[in-house]
Amino acid sequence: MANILADFLVETTKGYYCRYGDFYIDPLMPVDTALISHAHGDHARPGHLHILGTNATIVFMQHRFAKQDLNSYKVIDYSASFFLAGVKITFFPAGHILGSAQILMEYNDTRYLYTGDYKLQDDATCEPLVFVKADVLITETTFANPAISHPDQIEEISKIATTNHNVMLGCYSLGKAQRLTYLLNMVCPEKAIYVHHNIAPIHHIYNTFGFVPLKYEIYNRKVMKDGVNKVYLVPPLTFNSYLRAKNVIRVFASGWKRLQHNNDLSLYISDHVDWKDLLLYIEESDPKEVWTVHGDGAMLRDYFNGKIAVRDIAKISTL
């Protein structure tokens, strides 16, 4: 029978800390040992003495953090277990972006699973999520609301096929931009895809890993003025700086309704689970307890009241 330790993983000012293995997960400040679930900036930071992540995660971090000591990185293969102190650790694909990982921690015959960010929707550009059984599921709750249901991604991306106008498509540079490029290549092959110079190196890394080829060109200032049927992928800061851009359709890809305001088309494509997929994931994981992070777990707690114990992860301010 599982002996669940309420303080096995706690939230501190530096990040999520496991004192039983003396390591942090996705720490916000420099620490000795950091396990990184994926390479997005709110999870992967520089300055740690030891950085453990999947091959792709480390490649992305090396691209972003040029001053980080290369000897600090250690590549962790999926499904290859290792120990930190008495804690057995295994990384499994999370389906969020290329290289994203769920982190399974086993201690005294109890299984604690940190999801990181994850999704169940198909995404040919990265490893698909692997369901993992756990006694304690530590899950993000970005869209933990019964009112939120992500639409079919093919139907959403097909909206761009309905216009011959050039499109300025706002998206996050890592993960979302590559997923959108592939979807556009497949669903809207008549569209020429151009990417911002900050996105292009990430596309190159994705193509190097070889899941699916991404067809695109690097943007130059003349291309959007010459002809139609072009899509220009830009990061959020660039997108927001062109509020009055002329002769283009403005679109931003996100699961958040607030980011669809003032755009010419809505494009609800998210790299997180919605309510239905969150429930499916919990069913497949079959936990005895659910600890919530990154969002509001109140509706999840109400839904499982009397069935599964759901609470926010414990917080400790002194570490």
Task: Give a description of the structure.
It comes from Sphingobacterium alkalisoli. InterPro entries: MBL (IPR050698), RibonucZ/Hydroxyglut_hydro (IPR036866). It is a single chain. With 319 residues, the chain is α/β, with parallel strands linked by helices. It is built from 7 helices and 19 strands. The chain folds into 2 domains: 10-146 and 272-312, 4-Layer Sandwich (Metallo-beta-lactamase, Chain A), CATH 3.60.15; 153-267, Rossmann fold (3-Layer(aba) Sandwich). It has helices spanning 55-64, 153-157, 176-187, 200-209, 236-241, 275-285, 298-303; strands at residues 10-11, 16-18, 23-25, 33-35, 50-53, 73-75, 82-84, 87-93, 101-107, 110-114, 136-141, 167-170, 192-195, 217-218, 230-234, 249-253, 265-267, 289-295, 309-312. A 7-stranded mixed β-sheet has the order 7-8-9-10-11-18-19. The protein has a 6-stranded mixed β-sheet with strand order 1-2-3-4-5-6. A hairpin with a 4-residue loop joins strand 1 and strand 2. Helix 1 (55-64) packs antiparallel against helix 4 (200-209). The mean pLDDT is 96.
